[in-house]
Amino acid sequence: MNIIKTFRPGDDGTKRYSDKYGQQLCAVRYRRSRCKKTVYTTVEIIVAEREAYPRSQAHRAANTKLTEWVALKIAFDELELRNEAKRIGGRWSKLAKAWVVKRKLAEGAELHHRIVEGLIDKCLDVDM
Predict the structure, then answer these.
(1) Prediction pTM value
(2) Closest by CA position to 6, among listed 36, 35, 26
(3) Residue 109's beta-bridge partner residues?
(4) pLDDT tens, 23-68?
(5) pLDDT (tens digit per residue) in 105-126
(6) Are 69 and 103 a contacting pair, CB within 8 Å?
(7) Which residues contact 40 (CB under 8 A, 6 or more apart)?
(8) Quick one: CA dihedral 56, 57, 58, 61, positive or negative?
(9) Neighbour order of strands in the sheet with 39-45
């Protein structure tokens, strides 16, 4: 169905629905059927109301910190650690000579001890 018109409470054409639904009324819409033979009148009403609880700053910061990119320092001869970095989707940065991965993945793969804070700023050659 295609929406022909939308009216807000108080607009012409909403009086009878405003009388019926009062403050619950959000909108009155006229819709045309796909075959274009019928016009439907629909109303949007509020059926429940509650206070919104915003996420705390600490929770938001924790989520951001887990999804941020970090740089891991792994020596050339540490083959197992290099392979683990590749396995979790790490990308090699030639400029910083470090592996770039998401913090959450690095911590999940027990590579958190290899994270060098601030080094990610030098990994300009890696798409993140």
Answers:
(1) 0.50
(2) 26
(3) none
(4) 999 999 999 988 888 999 999 999 988 887 776 665 555 555 557 8
(5) 888 888 888 888 888 888 888 8
(6) yes
(7) 1, 30, 31, 32, 33
(8) positive
(9) 2-7, 25-32, 39-45
